[in-house]
Design brief:
Elements lengths: L4 H11 L3 E5 L3 H14 L3 E6 H7 L1 H15 L3 E8 L2 H10 L3 E5 L5 H17 L4 E5 L10 E2 L14 H11 L3 E4 L7 E2 L7 H10 L3 E4 L7 H9 L2 E6 L1 H17 L6 H23 L7
Helix pairs in contact: 2-4, 2-11, 5-6, 7-8, 10-11
The chain binds 1,3-dihydroxyacetonephosphate (13P).
1,3-dihydroxyacetonephosphate binds next to strand 3, strand 10 and helix 10.
Amino acid sequence: MQKDLSYWFQKATKEHWALAQFNFSCAEQLKGIVQAAVALRSPLLLGTSEGDSNFFGLAQAVAMVGAWRRTTGLPIFLNFDHGKSFETVAAAIEAGYDAVHFDGSHFPLEENIAITKKVVALAKKNKISVVEGEFGEIPGKHSDIHLNEEVTLDPSVYTDPEEAHAFVEQTKVSSLAIIIGNVHGVYAKVPRLDLMRLQKIQKRVESFLVLHGGSGTPEEDMKGAIRLGVVKINISTDLRAAFVQGLRDVLSEHPEEVTPSKLLGPSVELVQKAAEKNILLFGSAGKIC
Ligand code: 13P
């Protein structure tokens, strides 16, 4: 029987490495990511945000990830990223996602806790091993390159260890998305992670700790976070940028090209390279014998 995602999180915790969660919104991005995991013999966690899944289709994402799982034989998991309501997360569970992230940070805390508990109960009924919770909104607009914009890195919004402890105790989530300087998207000002804060959170929180906003974060900070127990880091913008770079390269050299495989082939390769970089950095390479 295939080991579930929580098995891999536990193994990563023990051995001090992490899984990247690579988000995708089209089949070619997915192909590039899978090729990276195959080349480096890494377990693989994929993600789709609400927007990505609206574009791709929940059932379609599940079916295509399932096809890659069968044909590669790798442990490949699909997480629903930043589900903003009980209904959207329930739809992902119904469609067959392996893991879900309920982001109730836009609700008052009590309501967030109540809905998160409902999500945890539904996930348990459906034998889903990992439910990620979140309170306190992760800074940064969304996964994209925003080099002309400022992002406020205000330590007063960083995760408070006591609040995190209480949230996990009450909701029983298996993993918690924390804020320690990480931001969604890439900005001119490079964010630094507050590893002292992470250490304090780690001491107080029983659940797995996960980070969003991996793109544009200094490598040494991510390595430090992994050493201190972070088991998953989400990567989206870097893969989007790699995909678009591939398209731009082809179109600038061959503006008349109309064959999709020729237009998209270089994007697949660049996405693979970007994913490989993170797999090597996070230490999940070679974990599949
Ligand atoms: P980046 O776009 O900064 O990599 O963040 C991705 C993310 O956290 C998705 O949940």
